[in-house]
């Protein structure tokens, strides 16, 4: 292999660094030796190492060349001076005339005025800046790109020393843009209420690269090539699987495979390895650099691409460390675990035993994302949009996930722990009160009966049906069991499952919604092709009408499972009456087929549609004579009505479901359904929140379908409500010009003693 002068210097330097790191003495002694070594090797008069301390302060920890009395005295805030600038932007600076730079900050105690040129790099670990490493020269030296890279490589080795906790307490190692010191309290957004106490389990835990410096770079290059080849062949094996022969899967896999051949990315890893790092350290270095810089990028598309490379880098690290299983999954989950993730798909949540999950903390996510809905069904508290939480938490750190208040405590002090334990027992008591309500009817003070149904999607949910006293299951999301399997279940498997559900419901009504995949609900064995707007793309009934075999099999299984009992079938994402007509036709064909085969038919078949695409609301007069019921899916409806991506945290709270436009829409649909004598319910998340549920009742909706834990609070609200006075008040608000009716409705509830 041809090596340039610069890389051979760096390799020699790395060899010496390895000896110093492995040698005796305190961490400070080792750091002192390291700066001397770097200065000598890079022919610089000065080499200094600044370490990030609590409160975003960079402290001079070691120097060769500056005045020694400034060590541990000179401190710069992040973004102050050139050192602070390097930390703030997580990028290197190489300046021949540093003093001419507008950010230059002169510190007299250091005696640095005689040094004109400066080259500095951030010390990064994970995506977190732990310090800054600087060299300076008296002359106006033009540092080369290779020299910057050499210093970056050295900084990576130093990062391990800083992060070890031997130089400063680990509790001080906070990220650049977080002011917190331990214990941490982080703000997020409530995605599901409840409080959980446990230890952190990091979804995709970071593989800790222990061997950083290579014995022989050629061997490392070979290892890298082998690991990449292994990943490519894993993808090739996938291509040969019969169930993945379909076009869409190939597209996704092809795209992924293309990343493994991305020249720019591979070159950067190769370069890092050639400077003397091991293959895994090279991958880690490129991953850290990209993540640190991309953290400063707001563009969603670029960040998405970063995720792809990050995923690939993680796989490569797993491959190189001999662990090609996905890490941190189910098996050795602690008794009480708080799962922490950047984002997680609803299916991935099933990799963890829900009985041991006490909470979920996400860097992204929004109230209507499917993982939040699944977590709600499992009664797991969720806090979303907790900025940079993964950088501040280590595996097995004690964590409190306070879903009620949208906050997370990491390594909480005893008094906070104690008060949470108290809150948990108060919650148990509240549950006992709701349990007592179980057998009381959901009737308002002025005698209006509200039907309270439960949303479900897992067999596990059925146990709550009788506990919470719901009238039945108003939305059974059939895609959830599909998502938890490794292959599409056949008719027999589906029949078995649906029969069990009906058996366990013991005569209470169950509304089965046909397969609603696509958008953020991805089947592992049926990847859709890449779409720019998956929420507006090939999803739900659009897929099952285009692939009618899937719809036919599901309807056949439902007819068989009913075995003479009542069957309610609901079609999702219907955008026009013609789609409903087409779906009904498929159902009629299946009914005829099963009749001919002698299957006992359901005593009654109720057919309904979700109303979640606004266009359908303008065809209600044509639609309503064809259906027995309509259920409003407020999650998708909100997204389409306001043109707002339900998964995008940045705009998640821009519009309120209690905005006049939304409330008016509900009122209009409710009036039409009443006129046509068609049952109307709401089964989106909106119905599960007491104030929103009160409003829905106010516009005439009499059936709500909510998660099991919400039944108690909603029933309490219903039993304290006087519908007549609410209806007349709400009528006066329909033409409001306000952004939201929330505060007025809350005012009504308070004035009229409605329990929220
Ligand atoms: C909805 O969109 O409101 C709904 C109930 O369906 P899902 O959340 O499963 O898309
Ligand atoms: Mg929906």
Automatic annotation (TrEMBL):
Record InterPro entries: GAF, GAF-like_dom_sf, PEP-util_enz_mobile_dom, PEP-utilizing_PTS_enzyme, PEP_util_C, PEP_util_CS, Phosphohistidine_dom_sf, PTS_EI-like
Keyword Magnesium recorded: yes
Main enzyme class: transferase
EC number(s) recorded for this UniProt protein: 2.7.3.9
Main location: cytoplasm
GO molecular function, one term: phosphoenolpyruvate-protein phosphotransferase activity
Catalytic activity: L-histidyl-[protein] + phosphoenolpyruvate = N(pros)-phospho-L-histidyl-[protein] + pyruvate
The protein's required cofactors: Mg(2+)
Keyword S-adenosyl-L-methionine: no
Alphabetized UniProt keyword annotations: Cytoplasm, Kinase, Magnesium, Metal-binding, Phosphotransferase system, Sugar transport, Transferase, Transport
UniProt cross-references to Gene3D superfamilies, sorted A to Z: 3.30.450.40, Phosphoenolpyruvate-binding domains (3.20.20.60), Phosphohistidine domain (3.50.30.10), PtsI, HPr-binding domain (1.10.274.10)
SMART domains for the chain: GAF
This protein's name: phosphoenolpyruvate--protein phosphotransferase
Species assigned in the record: Phaeospirillum tilakii
Gene: ptsP
């Amino acid at each position: 292999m041809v090596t340039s002068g610069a890389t051979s210097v760096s390799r020699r330097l790395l060899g010496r660094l390895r000896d110093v790191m492995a040698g005796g003495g305190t961490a400070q002694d080792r750091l002192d030796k390291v700066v001397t070594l770097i200065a000598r090797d890079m022919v610089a008069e000065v080499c200094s190492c600044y370490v990030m301390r609590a409160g975003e302060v960079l402290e001079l920890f070691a120097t060769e060349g500056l005045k020694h009395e400034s060590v541990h005295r000179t401190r710069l805030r992040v973004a102050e001076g050139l050192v602070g600038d390097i930390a703030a932007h997580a990028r290197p600076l190489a300046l021949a005339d540093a003093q001419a730079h507008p950010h230059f900050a002169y510190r007299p105690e250091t005696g640095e005025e005689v040094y004109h040129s400066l080259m500095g790099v951030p010390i990064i670990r994970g995506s977190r800046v732990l310090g800054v490493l600087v060299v300076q020269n008296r002359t106006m030296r033009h540092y080369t790109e290779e020299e910057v890279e050499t210093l970056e490589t050295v900084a990576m080795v130093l990062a391990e020393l800083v992060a070890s906790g031997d130089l400063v307490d680990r509790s001080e190692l906070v990220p650049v843009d977080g002011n917190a010191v331990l214990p941490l309290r982080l703000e997020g957004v409530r995605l599901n209420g409840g409080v959980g106490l446990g230890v952190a389990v990091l979804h995709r835990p970071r593989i800790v690269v222990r061997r950083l410096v290579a014995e022989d770079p050629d061997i490392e290059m070979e290892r890298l090539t082998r690991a990449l080849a292994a990943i490519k062949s894993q993808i090739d094996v996938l291509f040969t699987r019969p169930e993945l022969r379909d076009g869409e899967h190939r597209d996704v896999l092809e795209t992924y495979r293309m990343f493994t051949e991305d020249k720019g990315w591979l070159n950067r890893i190769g370069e890092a390895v050639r400077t003397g790092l091991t293959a895994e350290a090279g991958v880690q270095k490129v991953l850290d650099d990209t993540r640190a810089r991309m953290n400063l990028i707001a563009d969603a598309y670029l960040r998405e691409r970063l995720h792809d490379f990050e995923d690939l880098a993680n796989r490569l690290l797993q491959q190189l460390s001999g662990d090609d299983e996905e890490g941190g999954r189910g098996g050795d989950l602690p008794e009480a675990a708080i799962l922490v993730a950047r984002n997680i798909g609803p299916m991935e949540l099933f990799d963890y035993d829900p009985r041991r999950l006490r909470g979920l903390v996400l860097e992204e996510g929004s109230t209507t994302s499917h993982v939040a809905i699944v977590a709600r069904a499992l009664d797991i508290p969720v806090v979303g949009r907790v900025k940079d939480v993964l950088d501040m938490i280590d595996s097995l750190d004690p964590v409190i996930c306070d879903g009620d208040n949208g906050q997370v405590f990491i390594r909480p002090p005893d008094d906070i722990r104690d008060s949470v334990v108290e809150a948990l027992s108060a919650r148990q008591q509240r549950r006992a009160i709701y349990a007592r309500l179980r057998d009381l009817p959901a009737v308002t003070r002025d005698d209006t009966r509200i039907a309270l149904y439960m949303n479900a999607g897992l067999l596990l949910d059925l146990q709550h049906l009788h506990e919470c006293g719901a009238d039945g299951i108003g939305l059974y999301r059939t895609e959830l069991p599909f998502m938890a399997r490794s292959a599409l279940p056949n008719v027999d498997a589906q029949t078995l499952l649906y029969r069990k559900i009906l058996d366990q419901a013991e005569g209470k009504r169950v509304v089965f919604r046909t397969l609603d995949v696509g958008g953020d609900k991805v089947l592992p064995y049926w990847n859709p092709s890449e779409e720019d707007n998956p929420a507006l793309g090939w999803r739900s009934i659009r897929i099952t009408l285009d692939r009618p075999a899937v719809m036919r099999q599901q309807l056949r299984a439902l007819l068989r499972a009913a075995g003479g009992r009542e069957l309610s079938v609901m079609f999702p994402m219907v955008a026009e009456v013609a789609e409903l007509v087409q779906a009904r036709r498929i159902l009629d064909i299946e009914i005829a087929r099963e009749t001919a085969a002698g299957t006992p038919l359901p005593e009654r078949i109720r057919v309904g549609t979700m109303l979640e695409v606004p266009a359908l609301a303008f065809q209600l007069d044509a639609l309503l004579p064809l259906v027995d019921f309509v259920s409003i899916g407020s999650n998708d409806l909100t997204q389409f009505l306001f043109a707002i991506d339900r998964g995008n945290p940045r705009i998640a709270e821009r519009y309120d479901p209690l905005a006049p436009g939304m409330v008016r829409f509900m009122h209009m649909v409710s009036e039409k359904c009443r006129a046509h004598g068609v049952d109307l319910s709401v089964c989106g998340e909106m119905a599960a929140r007491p104030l929103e549920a009160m409003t829905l009742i106010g516009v005439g909706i009499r059936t709500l379908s909510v998660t099991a834990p919400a039944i108690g609070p909603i029933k309490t609200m219903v039993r304290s409500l006087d519908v007549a006075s609410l209806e007349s008040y709400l009528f006066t608000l329909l033409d409001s010009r306000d952004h939201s009716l929330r505060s007025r409705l809350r005012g009504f509830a308070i004035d009229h003693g409605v329990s929220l």
